[in-house]
Amino acid sequence: MKEKHSHKNERSCSACRTDIFEEEKPLWKQKGILIILTAGIIFAVGLYLEFFTKQNTIAQILFGAVVIISGFHIIKQGLTSFIKIKFDMSLLITIAAIGAFLIGHGEEGAAVMFLFFIAEFLEGYAAERARKSIASLIQLAPETATIRKNKREIKINVQDIGVGDIIIVKPGDRIPLDGVIVKGASSINQASITGESMPVSKSTGESVFAGTINEEGYLEIKTSRKFNETTISKIVKLVEEAQKKKSKSEIFVDKFARYYTPIVIALSLIVMFVPTFFFGQPFKEWFYRGLVLLVVSCPCAMAISTPVSMVSALSAAARNGVLIKGGNFIEEIRKAKAIVFDKTGTLTEGKPEVTDILSLNKYSEKELLKIAVSLESRSKHPIAETIVNYSQRKGIKPVNISEFKSITGKGLKGRIRNKVFYAGNKSFFANLKIKFNKDMIKNLENKGKTVILIGDSRKIIGIISLSDKIRPASEQTIKDLKEKGIKTIMLTGDNESAAKAIAKRIKIDEYYAELLPEDKVKVIDELLKKHEHVVMVGDGVNDAPALAKAHVGIAMGAMGSDVAIETADVALMQDDLSKISYLIDLSKKTVSVVKQNVTLSILVKGSFAILAFPGIIKLWLAVAVGDMGLSLAVILNALRIGKKQI
What we know:
Number of domains: 4
Helix content: 40-55%
Distance between the termini: 31 Å
Number of helices: 23
Largest sheet: 7 strands, mixed
Shape: elongated
Oligomer: single chain
Strand content: 15-25%
Number of strands: 22
């Protein structure tokens, strides 16, 4: 791959020099089209004059004009490269064109320069389309927004809106900045951020993101970030940075081209001069063959094949709500031999739900819940919140409670209508010397459930069990990975019984329970020794050390989470485990396309180089097929990656 330059007056590989923040002009409006049309007409007139009217002098002048019009920047870059002793394609084409004129083949020199310009233009356009497949993200967030200020509605540039301002978003409008809804409710199309096709219902107090579409209702949103700090701007920045990071294949091709080009020039010089000076062969004939070899052996197609493939994959992933931080991770993911999942928040939703209400000792379910919700409403523990929410959905409200006491990690105590009640775990009731059915509780725990006992000062009056809800895609994802021959492993801080129940239900191969965050890192260390390549999937916050330790770390549900986006190698913008299988398929397809492109380049270039020695290949054919045609072929092949959807 040719080096990228920051100087405006330098010219590098067209496939590598596009900026995703530039506005793409329609093909017919681009300057290159005018150059191609002008040079093409002059070239056609020149060919007519040379071959049909025999006005060779005028024809050669016209051919020279074609070279100047279509090759001005190519020659300029070629001479700059020559001065810097840096051999690139521009230098090779410049030498070939000048050489063709010197031996009286002006039409060949003009054809070489003209066809190479077309190749560069089309390569640049095609490669730009690959890079700009996420450019729509930048254009999603509107440049202006309506804010409410001093009881007036004012339209201003989003750059002038501060954190805490109230913006008004009407039905059908795009949301200009990240924020929280303070008034209204609507369905929000979040496809630009998460890749999900179905709109999501949002109401007061919920977060919304810049670039998403308000489909139905009137919304007033309190901004939480400035325009350059929004989630969508972070996505664009991450993808842009990822495109700059080279994969191992790209690094190899770079090194290969660095040594390959000087060798080709040396070989071409040998072909030009050795047969003439040592074997008495015609100089003009062998000089021409040397020029053909010089052009046909240029590694341009090989140089662009890998980066265009990687960009196509990165862009396709971004459109599907998956952020990959570089081409190296695309190559790595396909190697996975074991994928490790954190349980809570990854395989499960991380939100407990009530699964069983068992009322005992003549208490009805309604009476049991009324006592439970009265106690739990005083606690802020996640389990307490779940029981309170469940009771509210059942229409059961808490009653007045006195003498409330919370024993951290154990349970709750309170007096209701002159009677003391307790709610807590089994150890809490064991300490109170209140007997309970151990077998019943063990049976629930073996199913992976958390058990809350409710009792008075003498006996247990009921049991409420809760379970962390398994994500809908968990079981299918584990099945898909197994079919790919990948071992699946679960890590959790939960007890052995709960871990075993979840592992059995989703058919995971192996699990480790009762782990602290530092224990997870130790387990990853052990797995790295046992398996050739390990991928870790977690929530991106608590699992950050383990994610960093694995070969590839994948963070779940990164939408709006700076930590997840910054710490992981891959960030899934929504809580969709099916993206894991998609990632592996995308990785395999990308690497397959890279291999196809490199193999095709070597075969075509090698064949043309061999045919150049006996003079079978003409100079214009070397450019038209061996350079322009081949380059377009590898780019079009790379663009197929972008069609990989989930």
